[in-house]
Amino acid sequence: MSETAARTVSLVVVDDHPVVRDGLRGMFTAAPGFEVLGEAANGVDALALVERCDPDVVLMDLRMPGGGGVAAIAELTRRGARSKVLVLTTYDTDSDTLPAIEAGATGYLLKDAPRDELFAAVRAAADGRSVLSPAVASRLMTRVRTPAADPAGTALSAREREVLVLVARGTTNREIAAELFISEATVKTHLTHVFAKLGAKDRAAAVAVGYDRGILG
């Protein structure tokens, strides 16, 4: 048996649904070579848990009340955390996959992935290797091969796109600030840039342009 195969991989599970967390904990606890160090129900609690437990891998959901996954991934990257993040979610749209990967996720799987595929993905993530579900890989490849529709100089940054996605979901500035771990003033600055780049005069217009240009999927 190789050293990689014999090594126990430690992980934490981040998901807002208790049933999902229980299922994943049971699955990995029953499998040899894995150790579940803890669980969190949102991105904010995940940051504290990762800092306390220092796992090899973080299994991260994306859309969670009280702190989303993308913002948590970005913050872990900013902090230089050793843990690798493997996104495990039901969403495979551009507005979910691209920000997560740009934020620093090592891999991206959908929750319908077979158990053995999930085990292999966690081990690969622990080794620093990227793992993408076929649907996500195809979507990213299409995005890379398709020229951006935005005129030069008007493409949104990853953070600006995150803010626009949250605006499209009806999130207030205060809620966006909490979700992305930034101040309300910074949110307003990002929105100003978004409005200018999209030629929009308000939030509704920015969302409409975002959908029209494919920025919001």
Strands, helices and their partners?
Elements (H helix, E strand, L loop, with lengths): L2 H4 L2 E6 L3 H13 L3 E7 L2 H11 L3 E4 L8 H11 L4 E6 L4 H10 L3 E4 L4 H12 L4 E2 L1 H12 L12 H11 L4 H8 L3 H15 L4 H10 L5
Parallel strand pairs: 1-2, 1-3, 3-4, 4-5, 5-6
Helix pairs in contact: 3-4, 4-5, 5-8, 8-10, 8-11, 9-10, 10-11
Structure, explained:
The longest helix is centred in the last third of the chain and has 15 residues, at 184-198. Helix 4 runs parallel beside helix 5 and helix 10 packs across helix 11. A six-stranded parallel beta sheet has the order 2-1-3-4-5-6, with helices on both faces. 39% of the residues are buried. It is α/β, with parallel strands linked by helices and 217 residues long. The N and C termini lie far apart (45 Å). The model is unreliable at 1-5 (pLDDT under 50). The protein is globular, with a radius of gyration of 18 Å. It contains eleven helices and six strands. It is 54% helix and 13% strand.
| Number of distinct beta strands | 6
Mean pLDDT: 86
Low-pLDDT sequence parts: 1-5
Shape: globular
Number of helices: 11
Give the biggest sheet: 6 strands, parallel
Structural class designation? alpha/beta
Strand percentage lies at: 5-15%
Q: Report Rg.
A: 18 Å
The helix fraction, in percent, is 40-55%
Spell out the helices and strands N to C: HEHEHEHEHEHEHHHHH
Distance between the termini: 45 Å
| Widest beta sheet: strand line-up | 2-1-3-4-5-6
